[in-house]
Each structure stands twice: as structure tokens, then as C-alpha cells.
Amino acid sequence: MARKKKGLLVVVSGPAGVGKGTVDSALMAKHPEIKMSVSVTTRAPRPGEVEGVHYFYRTKEEFDRMIEEDAFLEYMHVFGMNYYGTPKSFVESEREKGNHVILEIDVQGAMKVKAACPDAVLVFIAPPSLKILKERLVGRGTETQESIDIRTKTALDELNMLPHYDYMVINDVVDEAVGEMESILTAELCRTVRNKELISKLTGGETI
Length: 208
What we know:
This protein is α/β, with parallel strands linked by helices. Helices cover about 45% and strands about 20% of the residues. The model has no long low-confidence stretch (mean pLDDT about 95).
């Protein structure tokens, strides 16, 4: 019997330089049913950016109205300038289609999403060691020493939030990390709490 399931909301966090984007991109390349969440922002589009692909672009007034309407899973004010938020409507629409939605977000935002959407799956992408994380940051060639020190300290604070996550994936080899993400999705889809309709039919004596 075919099981039509609602897609998962997978919240992915991890320190800067850990390779969250690389792992998520590789995962989505293998699985077209996995989509990246599209945020709403009050900043202006940059050259080449497309509405509904990179962001949903809204005015400050429109954003405020969405806050009043409780339209966000979470939102933030970045650097006292622009607002960014995760729209409930996009996430729910994709999940109802059976697609899985990945939301890359920091640990504070992840806790807000978990509160607003208790069935969200929280995954923390961690480095093999802090030493390797620092080497990756240095390898970028775009960070000052001060910036690297700040990011390393922030990484420690973020790692202390690990007990609040459902899963931890170590990104040492990207393909292995992607494989672990696939295993997490498979395990979550097999959970009894996500198969209540089928269980009801089976226990109700329906012929299959």
C-alpha cells in the first residue's frame, strides 16, 4: 500500500565554515524532492536574484503586517538594518506536496522554529574538531585573524547547544555527511508518529 506522507522540515545549523551549504547542496542535487526554504527579506534584490527563488522581497510595512498575522516560523532583524523571516506558507505548501524543506539557520532561530513547529527535525552539522574548523576558516582566505577568533568563540557557544538537537552529523567527508543526512530522513519517515493514518487503517482491519 502506497504511503502518502507529509514532507519533513529539516532545520540545519552549525558553525561558520563547517560546510552546511556544501552538504545541503549535495543532498538536494541527489534528491529533487528536497527543497531549500526561501526567506522573506526587506532588503532590495541584488543583480541576478529572482523573486521566490533567492528570497521573497517585501517592504518593511509588508513585513510588519506578516509579523502581525503570525506568518513567520521565525524572523530576525540583522545588523539593525534589514529583516529576514521564514514564511510558514512556503514551508507548509512544500511539505503538503510531500517535499522535504531544509532551513539553514543559526541556533537561536532553530529553537524558535522548534517551538513553532514541534515536528521539525533539528540537525547540527559539526566539524571533526575545532582545530579543523579553524583551518577551514583560514583556508577561505577571506577572514581576518580577528574574525577567525570571533567565529571560533561563537562556534564553541553553538556547540554547547548540541543537546537541544535531534541529530549530529560530522562533516569530515562530504559524501559521508550526505549519507548520514539521507539516513536521518529515512529514519524520520519511518517513525510511527508520522504514520498514524496507515497505522489506523492497519489496526482498523482494512484490507490492504
